[in-house]
Amino acid sequence: MESGLSEIGSTKMFDGYNKRYKHNSETLGCSMTFSIYFPPSSSSHRSPVLYWLSGLTCTDENFIIKSGAQRAASTHGIALVVPDTSPRGLNIEGEADSYDFGVVGAGFYLNATQEKWKNWRMYYYVVKELPKLLSENFPQLDTTRASISGHSMGGHGALTIYLKNLDKYKSVSAFAPIANPINCPWGQKAFTNYLGDNKAAWEEYDATCLISKFNNLSATILIDQGENDQFYPDQLLPNKFEEACKKVNAPLLVRLQPGYDHSYYFIATFIEDHISHHVQALEL
Fold it and tell me: Which family does the UniProt entry place this protein in (predicted)?
């Protein structure tokens, strides 16, 4: 399948440009969109990349429109790459029945093993296809220097993708991540449908399970969690991840933020801290 890459939007911001692209994804078997913020410095030298993975019900546009991350990205000379959150347009029966599963931005950044959902391979898309597409089409990006971050379901994706690919990413951070999905309703619903009943397969996409396999992490993992987040007690479970990190002495900073909820107001408040976290790891 030819990529058919085309630019579908461009807006100047903080002297750089938000650009949106459309292409045919061989991994997912459908047309996909993604957004890039190019800092002004990318016109003169290659910019390292911060991948941002968004949450349930989101597209590639939510972060670009709402986070305000471009100010810090412009200052530090880092490109923001934001993929969509699930395959689109496949017309699978039941794909849009609920907000927390299927085509409504609920790809969960895994590779589905169940036949019905075989196109839901967002893990391969984010880790393999998208970086390859970027390196082949955007010489102004240095995809060999990359970090990853995300929110909620995207925080889950960022943590698990980082832990499974330490050679590809310099650092990771997350806002209100689904940190232990095998033990929360969102994760159990998604994993049952995408992965079946094989609990060992579930653990391969659970950051709390994955962290126990590592005892040599060097970069600190940064997590911000709003204390007024309605999903904090039952869906997100950052305390489980924190306990698992302590057992293997994994470097982790969890910041509980009083009064903050699960929204992009929360993300916009602390996004500059996260970009600074990645800038340090990328040695900018």
Answer: Belongs to the esterase D family.
Contact 85, 58 (CB under 8 A): yes
Active site residues per annotation: 152, 229, 262
For 5-282, CATH gives 3.40.50.1820
To the question of pTM greater than 0.90 for the whole model, the response is yes
Domains of the chain: which residue ranges? 5-282
Query: Rounded to whole angstroms, how far apart are CA atoms 49 and 37?
Result: 10
Which pLDDT belongs to residue 267?
98
- pLDDT tens column, 122-161: 999 999 999 999 999 999 999 999 999 999 999 999 999 9
Structure-model confidence comparison of residues 160 and 90, the more confident one: 160
> Distance between CA atoms of 53 and 74, rounded to whole angstroms?
19
Residue pair 173/278 in contact by the 8 Å Cβ criterion: yes
Q: Please give the distance of CA 48 from its chain centroid, rounded to a whole number.
A: 16
The two beta strands, 47-53 and 16-25, are unpaired
